[in-house]
């Protein structure tokens, strides 16, 4: 085999890890009585349910660190611990981030 073809087949560990599909975790940070949070919940429940992705909810009023960081942006959606969006959740954008 030509060295050109062999070189193309080599991948670093980082590239291989990126190619492997590790399970995602979506986190909805919300507060009680928030209609935008209810809308976000519905979108996340639908997308994660269809894709088989785990998700959780956290109450910003019960966690001082989350409160300090996100209070003015509620609802906030994290994907794998990184902020994905806030206020309004776009179904297509979330789906793309998870696939």
From TrEMBL:
Q: Which residues form a coiled coil?
A: none
Protein source organism: Streptomyces spongiae
Looking up InterPro entries in the UniProt record yields: Glutaredoxin-like, Glutaredoxin-like_YDR286C, Thioredoxin-like_sf
Q: What is this protein called?
A: Glutaredoxin family protein
């Amino acid at each position: 085999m030509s060295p050109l073809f062999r070189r193309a087949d080599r991948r670093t560990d980082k590239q291989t890890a990126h190619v492997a599909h590790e399970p995602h975790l979506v986190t909805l940070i919300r507060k009680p009585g928030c209609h935008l949070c209810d809308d976000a919940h519905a979108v996340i429940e639908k997308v994660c349910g269809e894709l088989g992705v785990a998700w959780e909810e956290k109450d910003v009023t019960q966690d001082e660190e989350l409160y300090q960081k996100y209070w003015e942006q509620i609802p906030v959606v994290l994907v794998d611990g990184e902020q994905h969006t806030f206020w309004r959740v776009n179904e297509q954008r979330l789906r793309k981030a998870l696939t």
